[in-house]
Amino acid sequence: MNVEGSNVLIEANAAMNGGDGPQSYSQNSFFQKTGLEAVKEILQKEIRDKFDVVKPSPSESLTVKIADFGCSTGPNTFHAVQIILEAIQHNLQSETLDSQGPEFQVFFNDLVTNDFNTLFASLPPKRQYYAAAVPGSFYDVVLPKSSLHFAYSAFSLNWLSKLPLEIMDENSPAWNEGMILYSSKRKDVLRAYAVQFADDFESFLCARKQELVSGGLVSVLVSGVPIGTSFSETSTGKLYEIFGSCFVDIANKGLIHKDKVDSFNLPAYYPSPTEIKAVVEKNGDFSIEKMEILPNPAFRTKVPDLKKRATSFRAVYEGILSKHFGSEFVDKLFKLFCKKLDNETELALFLNSEKKNLALLFVLLKLKPSPH
């Protein structure tokens, strides 16, 4: 199958599961929540040390503008906003601004297909900010120029804007036949994913450069691989391997055509700190104020809840899976996935103590002053 002219899935444009039901993202974002809690103190300290705004004249009021890029449906986005807001308040109070303090405006950004109704229905009733939805890809400019003081993005940059074309072209060395994600065993596939991530991260930085005021901050939190570790060596890599085997098993049973599986790949990537730093330095518009590599607290439990991991996979990927395969396939897929996770052999592999876990990569960037 040549990708040119075929109806393969190229754009990664499906949002997380909406609503607040048992398979929704809002009920299955525990791992994202633990990541935010892990960096809370670092984030607050960095904001208190680094956040600065141009003080208005006595006759003008100060409005601080914050954006969460890739907010999904909550409740994590509200928790993150509150952490950021309180840190900025502490910073500005120490600058002895007027006693009334600044006003805050928060922009919640995600794809146009995001469930903004559920998000705004669950807004904290006693919030200290004005809220607005900003639909659109965070890889593009979505806010007015020089209007934003603080940009925040948690785990969103793990989601690629699109899939590399070459991994879906059977004439390419990077054709990813029989797999749904990259592996260190397929160097060309891994390279294609890495290039796409670098391009996307560059686009993200270019967009934020347009939107931020001079000296504005960008806080990025992503899941990534520790230095010297490949994704395939991690427990999460093993989990994706088990997940991918379910697609192949269903195709081998004749329940879906093999070409349908070969033309599907997940638009996810887990970068290393080295890759993050390289893109920022190549971009040149931001200084790295802080980069921290933290262990992921979601994996500190002795025996991880694998059923919960399966449900979290569904909350994240169901939209993109349904679009490519149909909803009936999704039900079969996750039934098989849960069954495999119950299998003692697979479970033993997952819990192998030699398996390494993903790290949390926290990065705080500051927009450099314009040379003009």
UniProtKB/TrEMBL annotation:
Keyword field contains Ligase: no
- Enumerate the UniProt keywords alphabetically: Magnesium, Metal-binding, Methyltransferase, Transferase
Q: Please give one Gene Ontology molecular function term for this protein.
A: methyltransferase activity
Q: Which Gene3D superfamilies does this UniProt record tie to the protein?
A: Methyltransferase, alpha-helical capping domain (1.10.1200.270), Vaccinia Virus protein VP39 (3.40.50.150)
Checking SUPFAM superfamilies in the record gives: S-adenosyl-L-methionine-dependent methyltransferases
* Record's keyword annotation contains Metal-binding: yes
Any one of the GO BP annotations: methylation
- On the tree of life, the source organism's domain of life is Eukaryota
Q: What is this protein called?
A: SAM dependent carboxyl methyltransferase
- The organism named in the record is Dillenia turbinata
Q: What is the lineage of its organism?
A: Eukaryota, Viridiplantae, Streptophyta, Embryophyta, Tracheophyta
